[in-house]
From TrEMBL:
<dbReference type="InterPro" id="IPR004117">
    <property type="entry name" value="7tm6_olfct_rcpt"/>
</dbReference>
<dbReference type="GO" id="GO:0016020">
    <property type="term" value="C:membrane"/>
</dbReference>
<keyword id="KW-0812">Transmembrane</keyword>
<keyword id="KW-0472">Membrane</keyword>
<protein>
    <submittedName>
        <fullName>Olfactory receptor 70</fullName>
    </submittedName>
</protein>
<keyword id="KW-1133">Transmembrane helix</keyword>
<dbReference type="Pfam" id="PF02949">
    <property type="entry name" value="7tm_6"/>
</dbReference>
<dbReference type="GO" id="GO:0004984">
    <property type="term" value="F:olfactory receptor activity"/>
</dbReference>
<feature type="transmembrane region" description="Helical">
    <location>
        <begin position="110"/>
        <end position="131"/>
    </location>
</feature>
<feature type="transmembrane region" description="Helical">
    <location>
        <begin position="178"/>
        <end position="197"/>
    </location>
</feature>
<keyword id="KW-0552">Olfaction</keyword>
<feature type="transmembrane region" description="Helical">
    <location>
        <begin position="39"/>
        <end position="60"/>
    </location>
</feature>
<dbReference type="GO" id="GO:0007165">
    <property type="term" value="P:signal transduction"/>
</dbReference>
<keyword id="KW-0716">Sensory transduction</keyword>
<dbReference type="GO" id="GO:0005549">
    <property type="term" value="F:odorant binding"/>
</dbReference>
<keyword id="KW-0675">Receptor</keyword>
<keyword id="KW-0807">Transducer</keyword>
Length: 200
């Protein structure tokens, strides 16, 4: 999806970054604008750590299980794959095809890790930038009576709000299919997991 909407993403980034940088440059607004940024950073860090640990556990569990079986002299050794996949063709345990599947599933785990973290972090960044701009507009509107030209402030806030609505539409267009895809994929993954459990 990100490659399909590359130009929209570029435009969204340029639009949000341009105004966000001017807000950060203003010392009076900087604290108000950056309020809540630590929460976004923590959430992104938690997602990053959780996805990474999940990927590592997913990839190394089969190796640890096989090693444990070797140490305990259990025969025949059960060979697992990282995703616990069951294929319609015969995968000889420990054979070349099993190793190929192991490498492919390991690659898919780390690819999923990288893509999921990138998308989540990018989404959080865009939403945070939009919230920051709304805070700045709110602050400007609250201090409208202190301004020498309130009409221009109102006009600027309305223009900025219209821009944010366009950004919101772009975010929905870009990330909406991703959320839909993740929902469908999770449902299919659960069905596959139930199927695989029934085959064991």
């Amino acid at each position: 999806m990100m490659t399909v909407y590359r130009e929209d993403l570029r435009g969204l980034r340029e639009t949000l970054d341009e105004y966000f940088e001017t807000l950060i440059a203003n010392q009076d607004l900087m604290k108000k604008v950056l309020k809540g940024g630590a929460i976004i950073w923590r959430l992104s860090s938690v997602a990053l750590t959780t996805f990474f640990v999940g990927s590592v556990v997913n990839v190394f569990t089969p190796i640890m299980a096989i090693t444990k079986q070797h140490k305990l002299h259990i025969h025949p050794i059960k060979y697992f794959l990282p995703n616990g996949s069951v294929y319609p063709w015969n995968v000889t345990p420990g054979g070349l095809l099993w190793k190929f599947h192991y490498v492919c599933e390991t690659f898919s785990c780390y690819t999923l890790y990288a893509i999921a973290n990138s998308v989540v972090s990018l989404f959080c960044l865009y939403v945070f930038q939009m919230i920051s701009q709304l805070r700045a507009m709110s602050d400007r509107m609250l201090h409208l009576d202190e301004s020498s030209d309130p009409d221009s402030i109102v006009r600027d806030c309305i223009h900025r709000y219209e821009t944010l609505l366009k950004c919101r539409n772009d975010i929905e267009k870009i990330f909406g299919p991703v959320v839909y895809w993740l929902t469908i994929t999770n449902a299919i993954s659960m069905c596959l997991a139930i199927f695989q459990l029934s085959q064991v």
